[in-house]
Amino acid sequence: MADLHSAAKPDQIAVTHLSLNLGVDFEHSILAGTVTLQLKHNDPTADTLWLDTKALEIEAVEADGKPTKWSLLPDVPHHGQPMAIVVTGETDSVKITYRTTKGSEAVQWLTAEQTAGKTHPFLFTQGEAILTRSWIPCQDSPGVRISYDANIQTTPGYMALMSAHGNPTAVSADGHYQFRMPLAVAPYLIALSVGQLAFRPYDEVTGVYAEPNVLDKAFAEFGQMRKMVNAAEQLYGPYIWGRYDVLVLPASFPFGGMENPCLTFATPTILAGDQSLVSLVAHELAHSWSGNTVTNATWDDFWLNEGFTVYFERRIMEAIEGKDYADMLAVLGYQDLVETVQEIGPEHPNTCLHLDLKGVNPDDGMNDIAYEKGYFLLRHIEDQVGRKAWDAFLRAYFKRYALQSITTEDFLKALDEDLAKPQGTTLAALGVDAWIYKPGLPSTLTKPMAKRFDAVDAYIAKHTSATVAWDTTATTSWSTHEWLRFLRAQSDSLGVPAMTLLDQSFGFSSSTNAEIEAVWYRLAALNGYEPAKANMVNFLVHTGRRKFLTPTYKAIIKGPWGMAFAREIYGNARPNYHFVATNTLDAVVK
Ligand SMILES: [Zn+2]
203, 392, 438, 548: most buried by Cβ count inside 10 Å? Predict the structure, then answer.
């Protein structure tokens, strides 16, 4: 399957293993060293190894220990510079000496000031979707699977961690670390983080890494990790990656989490203090199956990674917290889906599950459609065949395609052979085509219900006077999800008096729960609610999670504070954001 976002030609020569040897230079914000690529010749007549690179400084290239000819082609928008290396049909390995540059978008270098500890600089990489090529010359396509090993040299006093086996439990005296990922993974899953970090295990399988002053809080938040791993294995088969640890990054991390194998990278915005946002850990853990074991072959098939993972995440949460809890997640997801379809347009091809991302940055096509429409498709199939048959199919699916990169058509093939036919039905009867290849919301989409939200809705309906304070006794046992239901039900044009009343009753402006903050600040910006303004600005400057930033900036621009104010905040905050976030926000705050 051709990957339109990669210059690699693995059908001619494929990279099968990669050895990194890199030094970390915090002073100049550079990673420098070598990568050695092991080759497999699929076409013996091929004499060129094609790699992806972006903003790298290449110093030398050797084929089997001898200098060889190479060239960098002109820059292709979004893709970077294809690299051509002359080899023979006999060449076993290619070694490239190189360094990263300021343009290496995967790597974010944080100053000490930008960390929680404020004493040491920090770095992390974010490879998905097509950014690994900006710190490692490689065949940067999810359809190419490679094992890897790495030697990382840092200044003594720092800890280095990777998406691999061999993560340290203590800081090494000489700053040298060694890693090994023996299973073949997609290149976007290679990840590195270096900083002042500490580790605390829960047991022999799970544990937490964080900056020392965040470790206690993080450890308390993720106490259910082992339970999640057990629940996941019970559902869909053995966890094959060895350890499962979570690394809590500084706040500029652009995503909620990134499912780097063995070591989920996570935002500190899920540290709510009451474990109420840990479904994100269930999500990243679920990716160990859907995404890392069975991987989308191209970014057009992205929904295979995310739709399956959202489904799996909610099944883990159902196993741990019960059905009523998981139902709340599904209803919030449904709201997100309906909103996203409205925003993009129900006829827009980007609302199909199977995408056509030709010529665009794949990151720009990744929205709630893959996650939530994907989730509801799987739920739709489950509803028709029953949970028992559906779970058996999923277990077989993860086995059938283990450590492979597959397309949507591969999924449909398995669905037909291993589920539809044995159940005496057909893909046409299951109606999957409309979900995958047609835009908008399918007619067979069933709107989910959540009992616990019925109680929230009833509570809102009871409050009929806009001048009487809210009865706060009814809300004491609410989780974050109930608060989100409550806040999302408020009108965008609520008005300052109603917002004041809400704030006086519930103290939303001083919330430290990032999910609640983001919804509240959006309302505050739309309504020009001054008492929330300072905390909102602080939130925007110190949080890098794109999911929170985008709607808040959009609300500021739309509301009375306007574009000029958005521009002012963005000017201060932008240096704290990763490329993934600025790439989106540069188009919003103009
Ligand atoms: Zn995901």
Answer: 548
